[in-house]
Design brief:
Elements lengths: L2 H5 L10 E6 L2 H17 L3 E6 L6 H10 L7 E2 L7 H18 L4 E5 L3 H12 L4 E6 L9 H12 L2 E4 L2 H9 L7 E3 L3 H14 L3 H4 L8 E4 L3 H4 L2 H15 L4 E4 L2 H10 L8 E3 L4 H9 L3 E4 L3 H9 L3 E3 L8 H4 L3 E3 L4 H12 L16 H16 L1
Parallel strand pairs: 1-2, 1-4, 2-3, 4-5, 5-6, 6-7, 8-9, 8-11, 9-10, 11-12, 12-13
The structure holds uridine-diphosphate-N-acetylglucosamine.
Length: 379
């Protein structure tokens, strides 16, 4: 029997089109949460949740499921860490039987991590159409692993769900059929808006002895910043200087912790370091920060919605709307530039910005509208 024949051999028990939703790494969890909630609320599609296990620490994974009310995954592939090839290959091999075991109408992937690309490849090779949420974002920097994941995922996806105008422009320039492109807004912001009140009720600030607007928040995990000890060491020098004026709270990503331990001689940082925080605690911290310094993608978007100044410690962004309309500035990793941009914010020169179009808490509903129409109508 061919693989495709096996795939259509048994109808889904519910009679509803089955959508396999894939999440693997920390930034995926807040994106799948509103989509799963919307599918469950409507009851018209049958969601099957796969956790690839790319992130597996309690602080990087389980806590997010709890905070965001995501149900237990239907399957956990347990791929863990490894080189890009190993991680991608493990997801490819381990997800294929799940896609074959019951008829799958679509696979839904989010973001740009290795799990996103691997699940996409496994699906399209079986002839299963893929829905990519957060399609079209481009940093135009192919040295970033995420940029390759974005380009390749979009090239073979059927539904391209776009979060900001640049996404649509980039996809059209790459030759995507305009009928595939759906500008739906930002699912990560669905989650932020639904959780902000809960986050604000936490006592995180008093526990850390911080006053509203009296501290900065820092995150660092991009290979270009943290894998090279000279770059990371120089960043820490300037960040420690800033900390002497304004406390800098720094939840340390495991990748960064590894470089500090193995290549910076276990350097004791003069910063307010913590273990990685849960979603709600981190949102609580961001919401009242004087400024945020980060190399994350999602945090550029979250600070824009919160109206908190963000300095992005990278040379580019795949989320230009946060610079054009929001509170984000791209500052790279040159200590002089970082120092002077922080000074400007402390002197009151910060942009208020505005919330981009359709970042309104309804992105997941728009996505499911499209999938319901296409999957229940035609397949
Ligand atoms: C991945 C994503 C990145 C995303 C980031 C968020 C890719 C290519 N990169 O990068 O886009 O912004 O997640 O965190 O998919 N580790 C642990 N525990 C965990 C997970 C990782 O200790 O639960 C350590 C391991 O030593 C691992 C390292 O962190 O080797 C890096 O993890 P990995 O998933 O390879 O990439 P990230 O740097 O987290």
């Amino acid at each position: 029997m061919t693989q495709d024949a096996r795939r259509i051999a048994t109808p889904p028990p519910s009679g509803r089109p089955r959508v396999v939703v894939v999440a693997g790494a920390r930034p995926n969890f807040m994106k799948v949460a509103p989509i799963l909630h919307e599918i469950e609320r409507r009851g018209t599609l049958d969601a099957f949740l796969v956790h690839t296990g790319q992130h597996y620490d309690a602080a990087m994974s389980d806590g997010f499921f709890r905070d965001l009310g995501i149900r237990k995954p239907d399957a956990n592939l347990g791929v863990g860490s490894g080189s890009h090839a190993v991680q991608t290959a493990e997801v490819l091999m381990r997800i294929e039987p799940i896609l074959l075991e019951r008829p799958t109408a679509a696979v839904l992937v989010v973001g740009d991590v290795n799990s996103t690309l691997a699940a996409t490849l496994a699906a399209v090779k079986l002839g299963i159409p893929v829905a990519h949420v957060e399609a079209g974002l481009r940093s135009f920097d192919r040295a970033m692993p995420e940029e390759l994941n974005r380009l390749l995922t979009d090239a073979v996806s059927t539904w391209l769900f776009v979060s900001e105008p640049s996404g649509e422009k980039n996809l059209r320039a790459e030759g995507a059929d305009p009928k595939q492109i759906h500008f739906v807004g930002n699912v990560m912001i669905d989650t932020l808006l639904s959780q902000l009140e809960r986050a604000r009720s936490l006592d995180t600030l008093s526990r850390l002895s911080l006053a509203p607007r009296g501290y900065a928040v820092l995150t660092l995990h991009r290979p270009s910043n943290v894998d090279e000890p000279t770059t990371l060491g120089a960043l820490f020098d300037v960040l420690e200087e800033i900390h002497a004026q304004l406390p800098v709270v720094f939840p340390v990503h495991p990748r960064t912790a590894e470089t500090i331990r193995t290549r910076l001689g276990g350097r004791a940082l003069a910063l307010r370091t913590t273990a990685p925080l849960g979603y709600l605690e981190f949102l609580r911290l961001m919401a009242d920060a004087r400024l945020v310094l980060t190399d994350s993608g999602g945090i550029q978007e979250e600070t824009t919605v919160l109206g908190v100044p963000c300095l992005t410690l990278r040379h580019n962004t795949e989320r230009p709307v946060t610079v054009e309309q929001g509170t984000n500035r791209i500052v790279g990793n040159d200590p002089h530039v970082i120092r002077s941009e922080v000074r400007k914010i402390l002197d009151g020169d910060a942009r208020a910005g505005r919330v981009p179009e359709l970042w309104d808490g309804r992105a997941a509903a728009r996505i499911i509208d499209v999938l319901e129409r296409d999957l229940r109508g035609n397949r």
